[in-house]
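Backbone geometry tokens:
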Amino acid sequence: MKLQPSLALLVRRVPVALGILALLACISMQVLPARAQTTSPSFVRIIHASPEVGTADVFVDGAKLLSSFQFGTVTDYAAIPPGPHKVQIALVGKGIGASAITQTLAVSPGVAYTVAAIGTKATGLSLEVFIDNNLVAPGTAKLRVYHLSPNAGPINVATQGKTITSGVTYQQAGQYLALPQGSPTFNVIAPQVNTTLSISATLKTISVTSIFVVGMFNSTPKLELVLAQTTGLPGLPGTGSDPNVQPTSSQPLLPWLLGALACLLIGSNVLTRRLTRVR
């Protein structure tokens, strides 16, 4: 029995249409995860470590973000859109037009940052940006030291009579250290000025502790340690930090199967047309 011409044409075109739909589905599955990644926010915290700025207001993209921001204060992480942002810091009440620091910072999606207002009028006022890593191995805690004191010289960090970080210089942060939970006392030693500062911290599992060295040796504001703690993300330590880690696909082979199906459908249509011509 022969099919009517219109019905035969429809039968030949159905596999092609299905193949095209499968190809479109395959492409969309590859594009959507990348698009979702670009919409993830960035995470930023700010510490006031500039000894000559005083209490300040902080503006981001022209809008006031922080008011009466005092020296030695560190904020929690705040989610902001990725991309470039204009950050300005002015003495409290002076307004954005009297900003002592103006700097444009570019932040990436899913990455956590510490932004430190640092410097003196003699050395220059600026914002120092650190990329943070809040991924913590199960059963441990993490510690990192940030050196933000202009005249303290290189610092070492010791606990329980053992040096755990050494030679951290101004405007640098030490490596992350994995530590067991507990309540140790950390000694920050500045050999160049013969000074030791101590601070105690309660380390919980899956937590990240930051010690900021701020202030001036033999001047005002005085040299001191500022402690900040945040809940970490369970996982293996890696480079950078993604507070919104995307789950891996439970069907990694699906795009390939759709692609293969598309090729099979289109190929079967070509073969059918050739066989029809032979007959």
